[in-house]
Amino acid sequence: MVSPRGERYLKTAEVARILHVSPKTITRWARDGKLPHSRTLGGHRRFPAEEIEQLARELMRETANT
């Protein structure tokens, strides 16, 4: 999904796939303030793609260093 300003947003299932967790985990993390997100007019969460992709890269680096 691309906003009118050209920003890309991901759905919950897409974020779950990227981070290798369940969609319920993504929902819980968003509710707990652990993941940046916004809501659509219909109440669905959308996650900024750049921030989620950066988080995934950081997590991969952390696991590679252990």
Tell me about this structure:
With 66 residues, the protein is of the alpha+beta class. The chain has a single domain, classed as Multidrug-efflux Transporter Regulator, Chain: A, Domain 2 (Orthogonal Bundle), CATH 1.10.1660.10. The protein is built from 3 helices and 3 strands; from the N terminus they run E-H-H-E-E-H. It has helices at 12-19, 23-31, 49-64; strands spanning 9-10, 38-39, 45-48. Strands 1-3-2 form a 3-stranded antiparallel β-sheet. Helix 1 packs across helix 2 (23-31). The longest helix has 16 residues, at 49-64. It is globular and about 40 Å long. The mean pLDDT is 93.
CATH class category: Mainly Alpha
Give the low-pLDDT segments. none
Structural domain count: 1
Number of helices: 3
The profile of the biggest β sheet is:
3 strands, antiparallel
Number of strand elements: 3
Structural class: alpha+beta
CATH architecture: Orthogonal Bundle
Q: Write down the secondary-structure element order.
A: EHHEEH
- The portion of residues forming beta strands comes to 5-15%
- Helix coverage percent: 40-55%
Strands side by side in the biggest sheet: 1-3-2
Measured between the Cα atoms of the first and last residue, the distance is 35 Å
User: What fold name stands as the CATH topology?
Assistant: Multidrug-efflux Transporter Regulator, Chain: A, Domain 2
Please compute the radius of gyration using only Cα atoms. 12 Å
Mean pLDDT: 93
Shape: globular
